[in-house]
Amino acid sequence: MKKIVALLFAFCITLGYAQITTPGTGKTYTFLDLSQDTSGTVISDGHKGLAIYKDITISAGDTLLLDAATMAVKCFGPITINIKGGHLCCETRRDEFHFCGSDLSETPSYFQMRLTDSATAEFTKVVFEVCNGIFISQSQVAFDQCHFQAFTAPVIKYMNCNPIIEHCYFHDNQSAAITSAANVTGSPIIRNNTFTNNVLSNVNQPQLNLGPGNAEDTLIIEGNLIEGRMDMSGGIALANLLKVGQTYAIIRNNIIKSNRYGYNQQGSNITSLIEDNQFLDNDLETNPNNGGSGISIYGSDTTCVAKLRNNIIRGNLWGITAIYYHTIDMGTAEDPGGNLLYSNSNNGTTYALYNNAFSNITAIGNYWGGNTEEFAESVIVHQPDQSDLGLVTYAPVMEIKPTVSGCRAFCANRDTLIEGTLSPNTPYTFAMQFEMPAGEIFDPTEWTFKLDVPEYVTYSLSDSSFTYNPKIYTRLYHVETPGGASQGWKILFTITESVSVADYEETSVNLYPNPATTRCHIQASSPIQQIEVLNMLGQSVFRQAADGNNHYELSVGNWSKGLYLVNIQTAEGLNTSKLEVR
Questions:
Q1: Is the pLDDT of residue 503 over 70?
Q2: 221 strand-pairing partners
Q3: Suppose 299 and one of 38, 326, 388, 453 were both cysteines; which one would form an S-S bond, judging by CB atoms 3.0 to 4.6 Å apart?
Q4: In b/e form, how buried is each residue of 425-462, taking b as 16+ CB within 10 angstroms?
Q5: In this predicted structure, which of 129-133, 302-306, 381-385 has the lowest mean pLDDT?
Q6: Domain boundaries, the chain
Q7: What backbone torsions phi and psi does residue 331 show, to the nearest 5 degrees?
Q8: What is the pLDDT of residue 321?
Q9: Which helix (H) or strand (E) holds 461?
Q10: CA separation (Å) from 380 to 243, 514, 576?
Q11: Percent of the chain at pLDDT above 90?
Q12: Closest Cα to residue 274, out of 296, 241, 292?
């Protein structure tokens, strides 16, 4: 883009010192352009760095371009970069653009950025550090692939707008990563970000501290990792304490772990869908009376609505706590909940769901840590435990068993993937077969095996062995559910050897018909000495010495349908052929 050399600046006095304010004539400016002003507001280092000593305001109609000619801007003093009705955009570039405050003294100089009065901005691959916050009001702002660290105040604070924040990284900030006020609305989209170790001040504050939503839009928190370290810092709080407008929220596919609590919804006029999240080990609060819930719904009235589906809630002090009034749907007969709640406990007692409220909860089709209704009742606190509490309807419960739906073996050295087949005759056993090239030796260390199990079911290798006649690599696995139910599973990996072209010509063997239903004829080019048939588990189903003729007839009418390996030993050598029985 052509740079503007001749600039027309309007100067004003703010807080006792001069600042740059663009005239609002529809021009585009870079920081290098602004450095040509003689007020000393922006000074170039002659390379790709700039220093800012005074405030900058981009007026309505004007644009600030973060171009590739400048890659780092350092702010000295309590500087404000104000996009006041103007625009900010980022030029396509490979490297990140850096904004940072001065950290040259014992007391760092934090700057702030404000986007107000219908400003528009698209921040792409921008790093902010040593900052006093980014304030957005009634403006259209998007952040993509940005990095935020060492903020002394909330990183992004919005009001009356819907910022889009995607693929960003927030870490090691003193306060919340994203926040809004209690008396204004906004429905941000917060998607595919990482939030770790924020709220270093260790005050009672979540990493995402969100107020009322905009009734015309949906607030979305999706695909994020929200991980804490401070014992007073929560994961997500969504509140509407003043009954401002109406909040519609989707909380989906997030991992929320190691916080004071996972998700807290509080107030009125909130309707949320909470699905496919993982609320894990949110137990940093040592006093269970003050926090530790995977999910907490604290309604001022029944307009505090939450629908929970297919969440994993594990390792918290409390699984779910429901307080005062609410409308909670954890599953119906027509639409089971599919939530998994297990290993949530404090002071030696497991609490999957504590309905400390007057409202009832429908919670059909969830897993509570065991496969019986009696177990569910033992980990749910509700009306049968205290008459003035709401009733939880939880039956029938969801059962989890240590099942395996499939298995795969992969050999990187051969770029080979083999799918296992469940044996109909041998429970908990998968059969696999691999044909080695002639002359090569099977090496188990070259292979990687993976069982197909639900995300919440774990497995570990308990034993393995290798036999040489027949050649079968056996792997035994211990498969376990969250509630402790376990089962042993076996993989039988049968290895056959291919025959070279020369060997095949000397010991040519033909099986017909193939597939066979009642009989199969074996015709060889030399006298047949012995025949052995193996099933796909490597088990011998037929073994017979032959009479030295070139022909043999197999009776297969009583065999199970499937694929078999037929080893034919002739005077010239061994031939292995596949036979299908139908």
A1: no
A2: 190, 251
A3: 326
A4: eeebbbbbbbeeeeeeebeeeebebebebeeebebeee
A5: 129-133
A6: 1-153, 203-399, 406-497, 507-581
A7: 135, 140
A8: 98
A9: strand 458-468
A10: 30, 60, 60
A11: 68
A12: 296
Q: Which amino acid is at 91?
A: E
What is the 8-class DSSP label of residue 367?
Answer: B
Instruction: Please check whether the two domains, 406-497 and 507-581, share a CATH topology.
Output: yes
132: left (phi over 0), alpha (psi -120 to 50) or beta: alpha
Backbone angles phi, psi at 298, to 5 degrees: -120, 95
Other Cβ atoms less than 10 A from the Cβ of 59: the count is 19
Give the end-to-end CA distance of the chain in Å, rounded to a whole number. Answer: 73
Residues 478-506 have a mean pLDDT of 78
445: three-class secondary structure by DSSP: helix
Lowest mean pLDDT: which of 7-21, 23-37, 298-312, 506-520? 7-21
What is the spatial distance between Cα 447 and Cα 425, in angstroms, rounded to a whole number? 26
Buried b / exposed e over 343-364, threshold 16 CB at 10 Å, is bbbbeeebbbbbbebebbbbbb
CB 543 within 8 A of CB 522: no
Considering the four listed CATH numbers 1.10.287.990, 2.60.120.200, 3.10.20.30, 2.60.40.3080, the one that applies to the domain covering 507-581 is 2.60.40.3080
pLDDT for residue 470 is more than 70: yes
386 to 38, 320, 354, 355, 378: CA distances (angstroms): 75, 17, 11, 10, 14
Written as one string, the DSSP assignment of 287-305 is SGGG--EEEEEEESSTTEE
pTM: 0.80
Displacement of CA 232 from its chain's centroid (Å):
24
Distance between CA atoms of residues 319 and 341, nearest Å: 6
Residues 6+ apart with CB under 8 A from 539: none
| Cα–Cα distance for residue pair 329/320, rounded to 1 Å | 12
For residue 502, the 8-state DSSP code is H
| DSSP secondary structure of 169-201 | EEES-SS-SEEE-TTS----EEES-EEES--TT
CATH, domain 406-497, list 2.40.50, 1.10.3470, 2.40.128, 2.60.40: 2.60.40
Backbone angles phi, psi at 49, to 5 degrees: -120, 150
* 145-149, 361-365, 427-431, 510-514: least confidently modelled range: 510-514
Give the residue from 449, 446, 451, 420 showing the smallest Cα distance to 433: 420
| Residue type at position 334 | E
